[in-house]
Amino acid sequence: MVRTQKRRIIAAEGTNMTPTEEMNGSGNLMDFLDEPIPDVGTYEDFHTIDWLREKSRDTDRHRKITSKSKESIWEFIKSLLDAWSGWVVMLLIGLLSGTLAGVIDLAVDWMTDLKEGVCLSAFWYSHEQCCWTSNETTFDDRDKCPQWQKWSELMTGHTQGGGAYVLNYFLYVLWALFFSFLAVSLVRVFAPYACGSGIPEIKTILSGFIIRGYLGKWTLLIKTVTLVLAVSSGLSLGKEGPLVHVACCCGNLFSSLFSKYSKNEGKRREVLSAAAAAGVSVAFGAPIGGVLFSLEEVSYYFPLKTLWRSFFAALVAAFTLRSINPFGNSRLVLFYVEYHTPWYMAELVPFILLGVFGGLWGTLFIRGNIAWCRRRKTTWLGRYPVLEVMAVTAITAILAFPNPYTRRSTSELISELFNDCGALESSQLCDYVNDPNMTRPVDDIPDRPAGAGVYAALWQLALALVFKIVITIFTFGMKIPSGLFIPSMAVGAIAGRIVGIAVEQMAYHHHDWIIFKNWCRPGADCVTPGLYAMVGAAACLGGVTRMTVSLVVIMFELTGGLEYIVPLMAAAVTSKWVADAFGKEGIYEAHIQLNGYPFLDVKDEFTHRTLATDVMRPRRGEPPLAVLTQEGTTVEDVEALIKDTDYNGFPVVVSRESERLIGFVQRRDLTLAIKSARQKQDGVVSNSVVYFTEDAPQLPASNPQPLKLRRILNLSPFTVTDHTPMETVVDIFRKLGLRQCLTCGLPFTWACCLRLLGIITKKDVLRHMAQMMNQDPESIMFN
Amino acid sequence: MVRTQKRRIIAAEGTNMTPTEEMNGSGNLMDFLDEPIPDVGTYEDFHTIDWLREKSRDTDRHRKITSKSKESIWEFIKSLLDAWSGWVVMLLIGLLSGTLAGVIDLAVDWMTDLKEGVCLSAFWYSHEQCCWTSNETTFDDRDKCPQWQKWSELMTGHTQGGGAYVLNYFLYVLWALFFSFLAVSLVRVFAPYACGSGIPEIKTILSGFIIRGYLGKWTLLIKTVTLVLAVSSGLSLGKEGPLVHVACCCGNLFSSLFSKYSKNEGKRREVLSAAAAAGVSVAFGAPIGGVLFSLEEVSYYFPLKTLWRSFFAALVAAFTLRSINPFGNSRLVLFYVEYHTPWYMAELVPFILLGVFGGLWGTLFIRGNIAWCRRRKTTWLGRYPVLEVMAVTAITAILAFPNPYTRRSTSELISELFNDCGALESSQLCDYVNDPNMTRPVDDIPDRPAGAGVYAALWQLALALVFKIVITIFTFGMKIPSGLFIPSMAVGAIAGRIVGIAVEQMAYHHHDWIIFKNWCRPGADCVTPGLYAMVGAAACLGGVTRMTVSLVVIMFELTGGLEYIVPLMAAAVTSKWVADAFGKEGIYEAHIQLNGYPFLDVKDEFTHRTLATDVMRPRRGEPPLAVLTQEGTTVEDVEALIKDTDYNGFPVVVSRESERLIGFVQRRDLTLAIKSARQKQDGVVSNSVVYFTEDAPQLPASNPQPLKLRRILNLSPFTVTDHTPMETVVDIFRKLGLRQCLTCGLPFTWACCLRLLGIITKKDVLRHMAQMMNQDPESIMFN
């Protein structure tokens, strides 16, 4: 018995038919010979994909290739190429995104410095590169060299004095306005999707949603260019988030080269998940952190196979970036730090306080930013994006210039704040009173009293903190590429450094206090303010994005030692808890909600006690479900149904009276099939009968030729019974990636069993969830 | 309309009833007041759990706690405690597994050295600790000190000469036999589950299977003790795999303290996933690698919440172990290495060759080991486990003693092979011919010609390689705790070091060859044989376990630099590809299959073109499905049905003729409910009528009291239509963690629509998959 069945299955496999085809084929051979209808099985813009269908299409494709590969050498080679295409795509993504990241870094460096001055030996050199090539520079004056001239020096010959200052100030603002004007204009004219950080949209796309052009070639090009302009303009934004978008555009670009990925929306998303990992990998130089970020924050379905490939793409990207060496230090990471002092148990208190600060900042930022973005969406503000960008740039530049900590680029600022004060550090932050008799080695400088420079720096940092907090809220979400990793980290790093210096000075002046007595003797190096800055940065980033493991791993890759993981983790946990207490969603989820994307978050727990029957359509009092019958409908009727309704699919039933389900047909497939039949098939006219059964209905000879559509019918639509708890339904939608699900009734009445009662779409599920959380269900806009 | 529905839902939520209860309650209040039947909803030993049911039970519990928490302060505190219990459990797991790992390390160290000699100053000191405390030791003779005496010295006063050698040899073998005898006896008498590495079983348990006692207290105790004995006996096995089992036992122990975890098999598995991460974290000192190992290799469902907690547990465990400091070097990692030379592109060729070797070794090991284990299972061999262990121990000890590379513990061997030859290295492997005029700094020793010691070492290593390859195949799977990480790594490290020395000498003697010309000038330090050993170890481990990302990350954490990730990755990828070409499954999957556990691998792709109707039971010609009717069956009938069949559950239909489904009832629940009713409910006798409807059937007054069982009825059993492709069914089983799924028919005939046609259980799915892969379907033994 078992053997017979086996043979039957193998026989079926030999024929290269899908189960549906096989069944159809047995009934009507002609139908099997028909060529496929073009575009059937694709999706419309702003629609949800059906993961189950994509997966089964990929399996069909794979089966076809496997069975063909035994036929000839050429087919075998083709099957090998197909198997390898995943790795090739990853390699290409890694190479291109690494290169782009390097180019962006170099361009940003140059253009940021262009706001201050120009290199006389070669105008395309940044300040640092200019003075590198100069031989006259000593180590102490690394950034002073004759080739580099400030604008005032070049134009008037003065470097000092009020006039020069005003001229430099004026030109700084002018350059900033010029850059941001260029950026916003390019975005508006060529690629409106290039604005923002892109991560909310990428999350939505990866969860199975179509936004055509969001990851297109134009977006890639314009986003790369405008990202450089936006960062160079000195606005309070970072390039890390947009780099993820850029990498995903690369992923989309290369996946369109291979039909395996371009023709399957599910497989394409595997590539995009890996590309997101590559993006974070080059943004921070943290390949493992990038993979975990993609896994934790961005991706929806992450098969283990993809994990391995993502890691490969992330590594290739990181090494490509390193071989370009934009920071000129052969370091992979963005902020390389090395601390020489361990941390002590008692320091956990300030670390946890920084975590609380990070959580509060996260809440403030999300609430403020969302309120402002909502205002932008709903009021006149949204109609003048260029003006808004120019205004914010002007305010930023005018307020930023006088303060040395806001004038420079934010990543330089963070880098300085993270750094430990070595003996050679010339920064104002390291202006401690030195003991003239000190003969300790360089990496073991004891705590010292703060000098005037440190006190001045503290004031300036405090002002910078307030400025950054306020301006970032208004900057994120404007119509230019803008990431929030760097501004968030800057806020945290400033706060952390201030706390760090305070603790250090307290420990120095009061080392007889009980809390310091045990671990901080005089002359010991016990507090590292740079570590506080790093912990603060992690806390603030965590508060805004609600990342957890990936955040800690990225930070771990920056420091390269497990030593400091505990402080980072304590701060990240605290920050997440504090922020979660005020609202569960991170900034990306908040923006997804603001835009009404249909995103079913895997992290949300649905705990309400509703049943499928409460959610399904039609509700009581609504018109009955729009269904098709398996035979007897004419082409005209179907077209009318398509025109009158906006449903994305129709259940097919035996007859309108019995409502017995035989399958489900997608609206798009139906439209395309009828269009194609009208063009190609002779005799199909408006009053041709459409039938979904295996055999054509018996019709009088005078009738026009009927149209068989069984091929586009999904014979195994997903069904749940109407008493299934919604938590199960939500789980099924999430895990299987359904687009819709039919609801059938169990026979509580003595009517026919398992009658088709209704339908639940992803939109219905999301609206129900919004309603349960006392939110406006109409905010979910797409299907 | 929307508002009304909302209010209705909220009203329902206020009553603390599950949907089922709510519905039942409305019909019959008495039933709602009934106390719950004990043990309903639990599982029998060697049975599969239903993840959907566990999840919905947890949501119910959570809902109850949330609504109660508003009632009083005490309930609020209880709800807080409940929310925190996850973190508490993680902390406890981390602390205990870190401590146990430290204790095991110390004990193994001492007992391994006990085979050679004893410390006179304190017999509980290992060789290293003994000579540490000795003041007379110079740096060069770290391991020679008067306090440490070999057995021959202690007993006869001789250290040199044939007699002393024979005596030491004899005692070495004797101790080994004694240790292994103790180990196997303890396992046999007290905890048969303590044998093996435990990872295959843990994988199965995490995928949703019950093996009572596998993670129990006795297993924990005995496994810890016997692991020390087994490793000390010098057998070719490691402690890394069993440490994962030990950590999971800790996880099970602590999860039984909290009802949230102890009463829910799904939640308990979340804890166990995290515990597995903690186990790997302490085994290698690699917390991030541990989390990824748990994610990639061990866990089945890994919610993101668990990822964060796993990381916490892994970190706590790693820091606990470090504070115990068993290796005496304050290092977190097992094999700490630091290389000073970068690798060159051309070296990728030998690295990839090592990858090929690793893949071949993996295939050889898996095939050989499985063949031997199958023989043990099926022949007389399995009846004499003690004898087998003793025989293998004797052979191992006798063959291992003469070779210095097999005599010492395997982890010491790996450690030495990984190490770069510094200036202070006294090992035989570093016996190079030194240039007397050398004045280079210590970390930049140029390549040198090999001395006699290196050539001797090469021969000994080659012999050790053959020995390890053969003996490991026979050792893994015996009735003692045995891991295969360390033996696999040893095989790879030996092969790698041999290749490394060969390349190094080739480069030294032929640096004018084209391949060396570009990167290996005379006097340069261009080849690091230790790196080759590490790459080989990664390749061999990858070939056996088929780990990918976690393998590379663990190795990355050992070296602590991204520099060497590319060689490791190249070797790991090659090894996986080569091994996969010979068979897709890793050693753990092979052992799962050998034992017939019902494990539905997430990594396997099901690509066959079968339909649900091909798999469901009953098949054509088999007796019809055993069903219950919603009323009219007596208690006696039900008991007879339970006795006559061994199905795990029964569909409940309206009547035997219509076969219209109303729900599904689990066998165990049915048994328990009837037993409890017979004990507690008066009037329930053998000919009481059992009914599953909402209202009691109308019966004559003379009839005994009927028994209402609607409460144990699952009203929303999972159904698929019989034309659903099996790949979708497999996907649903995997992603939703179903135990069984009912098959309904769509109306191809004009019979009643959606008739219940059959049932598919996880076992059926697995048997079908085995059959499709030309394996014996009867090998799947459990349900």
From TrEMBL, chains A, B:
It is found in: Endosome membrane; Membrane. It holds the Pfam family Voltage_CLC. GO terms for cellular component: early endosome; endosome membrane; Golgi apparatus; plasma membrane; synaptic vesicle. Residues 616-680, 713-778 form the CBS domain. It comes from the Eukaryota. CDD domains: CBS_pair_voltage-gated_CLC_euk_bac, ClC_3_like. GO terms for molecular function: antiporter activity; ATP binding; voltage-gated chloride channel activity. The keyword Ion transport applies. It is a multi-pass membrane protein. The chain crosses the membrane at residues 84-104, 169-194, 271-295, 344-366, 386-405, 457-477, 484-503, 531-556. Keywords: Antiport, ATP-binding, CBS domain, Chloride, Endosome, Ion transport, Membrane, Nucleotide-binding, Repeat, Transmembrane, Transmembrane helix, Transport. SUPFAM superfamilies: CBS-domain pair, Clc chloride channel. Belongs to the chloride channel (TC 2.A.49) family. PANTHER family: CHLORIDE CHANNEL PROTEIN, H(+)_CL(-) EXCHANGE TRANSPORTER 4. This is Chloride channel protein.
